Amino acid sequence: MKKSKLMNRISQNLGAIVITLVAVIWILPVLWMISTSFKPESMVMQAIPHWIPEVFTLDNYKGVLQRADLFRWIFNSVVVAVGTTVTVLLINSMAGYAFARIKFPGRDILFLTVIATMMVPAQVTMIPLFFVLNEMSLLNTHLSLALPRLGVAIGVFMLRQFFLSLPLDLEEAALIDGCSRYRIFFQIVLPLAKPSLSALGILTFVWTWNDFMWPLIAISSNDMYTLPIGLSTLVGYYGREYGIQMAGAFIATLPVLVVFMLFQKQFIEGIAFSGLKG
Questions:
Q1: pTM of the model
Q2: Fewest 10 Å CB contacts: which of 3, 78, 100, 197?
Q3: From CA 135, how far away is CA 144, in angstroms rounded?
């Protein structure tokens, strides 16, 4: 027993050390980004780098505001990310519920087909998507950025797994009381799915907010740029001004950090509960 307890303690300590190292490796570049954003350009490339700026300055943030159409880019990112997230939650929750609870011919085959799309690289679909949206005259619009992300197979899978873990008694009792399938879904099932919905919502928001490749293809005008695309122009237009670039990167990172900090509890619960039942 003592040997078993000792081995458990050693494994727990090793796990804690590994997690700490991973956290440090992840957070160091973020801290360096924040530090660089408050340094004068002359101190960014010092031979001996300093984590804490010797001179604090806000000139980099002023430079971003003066040289970039920042608020327009933020507006575009918010519209696309929030609109996509809300629509994905609605569509994926309905699809996940249908696959989990409604019996119809070919359900399992259709579900496997949906899951199989997760194995198709996004790059493969970009050219067909471009031609389809071009034929629909939707390129260079918010819709062109949101539509390709609405059918997220991982979201259907996560929510289906969660709905399978819910007891059928609740829905059967509601059916006996005369509730329709839609009323059961919106008033009983969805409120219980908040953890999984929060997890999927955070993932979708982060993916959409940080997306670079597809907006670069679908958007051609400056006033429709999202924040990642807009900030990338600072590199080409204004040279290697790392302080300004880091200030822009920090501004782009803040909304994602805020969303995750607000919903981290629901995110962890959603990831945990989504795999309870296969």
A1: 0.79
A2: 3
A3: 12
CB 171 within 8 A of CB 188: yes
Are the C-beta atoms of residues 174 and 192 closer than 8 Å to each other? Answer: no
Task: Record the tokens describing residue 166, joined without a space.
Answer: 């819910």
* Domains of the chain and CATH, by start: 61-273 (1.10.3720.10)
Dump pLDDT digits (tens) for 227-268.
888 888 876 555 567 788 888 888 888 888 887 777 777 666
What is residue 224's DSSP assignment? G
Q: Which amino acid appears at position 83 of this protein?
A: G
Token pair in block for residue 275:
């795999």
Tokens of 36: 């660089």
Residue 127 tokens, joined: 């050219």
User: Exposed/middle/buried for 210, CB within 10 Å: 0-12, 13-18, 19+?
Assistant: middle
Assess contact for 76 and 225: CB atoms under 8 A: yes
